Amino acid sequence: MSNEAWEQLSNQAVAIGGITYFLAFIAYLWQWASLRRVPLATDHRVAVGAGAGAVGGTASRARRRGATDEAWTEDEVVATAGEETRRRVAMAERLAVLLTVIATAVHFVALLGRGLAAEPARVPWGNMYEFTLSGTFFVSLTYLVLLRRFNLAWLGPIVVGFVVTVLMIDVIWLHEPVAPLTEALNSYWLVIHVVSAVIATAAFTVGGFTAGLYLVKERAQKKVAAGGDGAEAPAQRGYLARVPDLVGLDRLTYRLHAFAFPVWTFAVLITGPIWAHEAWSRYWNWDPKEVWAFITWVVYAAYLHARATAGFKGRTAAILALIGLATLWFNFIGINFFSTSSLHSYA
Q1: What is the maximum alpha-carbon separation in the chain?
Q2: Which class does domain 1-38+81-179 fall in?
Q3: Regarding predicted confidence, which is higher, 312 or 110?
Q4: How far is the C-alpha of 12 from the C-alpha of 248, rounded, in Å?
Q5: Most exposed residue of 45, 119, 285, 296, measured as fewest CB within 10 angstroms of its CB?
Q6: pLDDT higher at 309 or 216
Q7: Is the pLDDT of residue 70 over 80?
């Protein structure tokens, strides 16, 4: 295949992948719409049409869920909803996950085609368009890798919706034709530095999603405790009722950040300075990207230190995690629009 054919294949794969991600998003919405009127079976009052044995078993599982970080399984959620709802929910979830897997695979084809379209062939990290394409791919891949381990089906609509949105921005405003790597990027350090950076970025992003959900669910529960009108519905049924409890969300957020932080440290404080010295003969240049990457490192270091040593949990920790996510994505994309002096103008 010619370089032009590879570039065309990459562009087509991005379009197909975006459409498939969108269909997965619709499937996730279908799943949660099917559950919006199904309350959690925490006592006999919601067990319409269910046998006493089933109710007791579900209720006991509900009480155990309060002390764990596991999301509700499909059987527990729709135990009292009837066979038709059970089939509809199961079908929607399987379809959504399948479409997400297909979209991620097509996403990878887009990256592969982008790299093979250059002359000579290279890794697909030559400009902001390609870095964003890679970042969204790793967010989706991280979700799929952790899906079964942490029962993250409840996070699907947020992850897929985020990927679709960022891909649209990438294609509309950041797209550039394939070109050879600049001299500064033509190094094996590109692979080491960027792979570690995008892996950490993906894990931090997913952790930011769980931190945001913590704040939303906490607010809903406070409304229920205060007896606000209509507050019980979103807290006891629908989407928020299917995510883990606050303790589980806080613990999952911490685990994701604890994994991502050392990887980010390796990318920002080890491979980055070494590569900068090789390219520009200086380990540190006070470049805006370097400064904001370090600011991000400090915010996440503060989050993990306080979370591990001072019992810094709950709402304050979630807010700090979201501040870290804001600095991360501002450094990733925002610097390019607000700085004219960055040596990282290609990224």
Answers
A1: 74
A2: mainly alpha
A3: 110
A4: 40
A5: 45
A6: 216
A7: no
Peptide bond between residue 120 and the one before it cis (omega within 30 degrees of 0)? yes
The percentage of the chain sitting over the pLDDT mark of 70, rounded to a whole number, equals 81
- Residue 6: its pLDDT value, please? 95
Place of tokens 């949105």: 165
pTM of the model as a whole: 0.84
Q: Which two tokens stand for residue 107?
A: 């996403």
Residue 49, both tokens = 């049409």
Return the closest-CA partner of residue 207 out of 347, 317, 64, 96: 317
Q: Where are the domains of the chain?
A: 1-38+81-179, 182-347
Distance of CA 314 to the CA centre of its chain: 20
Per DSSP, helices labelled H in the chain are: 3-35, 52-65, 74-77, 83-116, 128-150, 156-169, 189-226, 232-236, 239-242, 246-265, 272-280, 288-309, 315-329, 335-338
Signed CA dihedral, 227, 231, 237, 240: sign only: negative
pLDDT score of 284: 84
Residue 121's φ and ψ, nearest 5 degrees, are -60, 145
Q: 310: which DSSP letter? A: S
Residue given tokens 């990224």 in the structure block: 347
Average pLDDT, the chain: 83
Rounded CA-CA distance 305/163 in Å is 30
pLDDT at residue number 338: 72
Taking the C-alpha atoms of residue 62 and residue 250, their distance in angstroms, rounded to an integer, is: 19
Report whether pLDDT(232) > 60. no
